[in-house]
Write a structure and sequence with these properties.
Blueprint lengths: L1 E5 L4 H11 L3 E5 L12 E4 L1 H9 L3 H7 L1 E2 L2 E6 L4 E6 L11 E4 H14 L3 E3 L4 E7 L2 E6 L4 E4 L1 E4 L6 H6 L7 E12 L16 E5 L4 E6 L5 E8 L5 H6 L2 H12 L6 H6 L2 E11 L7 E2 L2 E3 L14 H18 L3 H28 L5 H14 L2 H8 L15
Parallel strand pairs: 1-2, 1-12, 2-8, 5-14, 12-19
Antiparallel strand pairs: 3-7, 4-7, 5-6, 9-10, 10-11, 13-16, 13-17, 14-15, 15-16, 18-19
Helix pairs in contact: 1-4, 1-9, 2-9, 9-10
The chain binds flavin-adenine dinucleotide.
């Protein structure tokens, strides 16, 4: 059996490697060129996502690139600690949640896939799909046609495959936050006391913006700023310089507790004016021999810290279903029944945490209660402590 995987982000190379492990050949098409490990921002992989990487045999890659971040510490605008959010139980080998530069992870997963013999086609954008009997014929933007037994759309939150499967599929939703990220080389020297603690993200619910920073083992500091505001238009993004963005961000965090102004002033912007989207309920995930996974099917807001981890889980479970079930239809149905409730719950959780980032005094009181009573290891175990077992056999759903 041969699968065409669309997209070489997080889900694409992982799916190709998981399929290979299941005895299915995969070709990956990506509309851009090979990923540049230097360009882009940082994200967290939580233990459930790392466990999925382990199932594909690439956990060591993430461990080599990642910095341990087993907890988020939440702080109010005046400096009062509102609570600590533990990011799940570590894996059996002790690996906790990791913070990783996203393009470094993607590039390393692609390199590993190529080392395992997987075929990648770069600058190859999927445009359309035609189904002929038991095959799919995919047309790329340059007119090339590729034939496979099935097609997996791992093509992100604005997925073209989603619309090919169902022209009425919902679009992603702007969640009301813009996102900025950067790194301050040697920034640890600027920090003192609780701000200098390693192995955590320290996040401040400021008066006008939400700021988080993490001290890397080499003394550099990575940070992000979320601003509750209308979406930024492409032309505004194009004409605004990094210096202007940084001046604006410094003004937004001015007066809040913590090192945000110094870190932003001394830092290099890696992500500027990104409009944050999520994607909740997509009624149709598969049709004929086509299916969507990862952000293409269900994108939690970045506040959830779960998008990449969900994409990794999807890759493993889909490969298991295709390995264990007698035909593509029953494999897709089993996959959906195993994944839908979990991923939609994660998207809802992400939407809630995005909405708590809108400032206000009442909000700070509420947050203290939430982090004391609601966001506890016991209450979040369903998300972070979820584990997959590659050898576990998946069964057909009973009708
Ligand atoms: C600022 C920010 C912070 C985030 N922080 C976190 C975090 O801390 N933790 C976390 O787990 N997640 C985080 N996420 C979410 C995470 O990045 C995504 O959930 C994850 O990348 C989804 O992987 P994916 O492979 O499904 O999609 P993507 O990584 O978006 O990859 C999709 C790929 O498909 C390609 N593509 C699109 N259209 C076509 C086409 N027509 N033909 C061929 N290729 C195509 C794209 O070029 C892209 O390479 C964050 C996201 C953002 C934006």
């Amino acid at each position: 059996m041969k699968a065409l995987v669309v997209g070489a982000g997080v889900a694409g190379p992982l799916t190709a490697m998981a399929l290979q492990r299941a005895g299915i050949e995969a070709v990956v098409v990506e509309r851009h060129g090979p990923p540049d490990p230097k360009r882009g921002s940082w994200f967290s992989l939580s233990p459930n996502g790392l466990d999925a990487l382990q199932a594909v045999g690439v956990l060591d890659i993430a461990k080599g690139l990642g910095s341990p971040t087993p907890r988020n510490v939440l702080v109010g605008a005046t400096g009062r600690e509102l609570g600590t959010l533990p990011l799940g139980s570590p894996l059996a080998d002790g690996t906790p949640a990791l913070t990783i530069k996203r393009p470094e992870l993607t590039a390393a997963l692609v390199d590993e896939s190529i080392r395992r013999g997987i075929d990648f086609r770069w600058n190859a954008a999927l445009e359309n799909v035609e189904r002929l009997e038991e095959e799919v014929h995919a047309t790329l933007a340059d007119g090339t046609t590729l034939t496979a037994d099935l097609l997996i759309g791992a093509d992100g939150v604005h997925s073209p495959t989603r619309r090919i499967i169902d022209p009425a599929a919902p679009p992603s939703r702007y969640v009301g936050l813009t996102n900025f990220g950067g790194i301050t080389p040697g920034g640890a020297a600027l920090l003192q006391g609780p701000d200098a603690v390693t192995e955590q993200w320290r996040m401040v619910f400021g008066r006008r913006a939400f700021f988080g920073h993490h001290v890397l083992p080499n003394g550099d500091v990575v940070w992000f700023v979320n601003v509750p505001e209308p979406a930024i238009a492409p032309e505004v993004r194009a004409r605004t310089t990094d210096t202007e963005w940084k001046q604006r961000l410094v003004a937004l965090v001015d007066g809040d507790t913590g090192p945000a102004p110094q870190l932003i002033e001394g830092g290099v912007l890696e992500l500027a004016g990104d409009n944050t989207h999520d994607l909740g309920h997509v009624p149709t995930w598969h049709r004929d021999r086509m299916i969507i996974i990862g952000d293409a099917a269900h994108a939690p807001a970045p506040s959830s810290g779960q998008g990449a981890s969900m994409a990794a889980e999807d890759a493993v479970v889909l490969a298991q279903c295709l390995r264990d079930l007698p035909d593509v239809d029953s494999a897709f149905s089993a996959y959906e029944s195993l994944r839908r409730a979990r991923v939609e719950k994660v998207v809802k959780t992400g939407a809630r945490s995005s909405s708590t980032k809108s400032p206000g005094a009442f909000q700070q009181l509420m947050l203290r209660a939430i982090f004391t009573y609601a966001v506890t290891p016991k209450n979040t175990a369903w998300m972070y402590d979820h584990r997959l077992h590659w050898d576990e056999r998946q069964a057909a759903i009973s009708s």
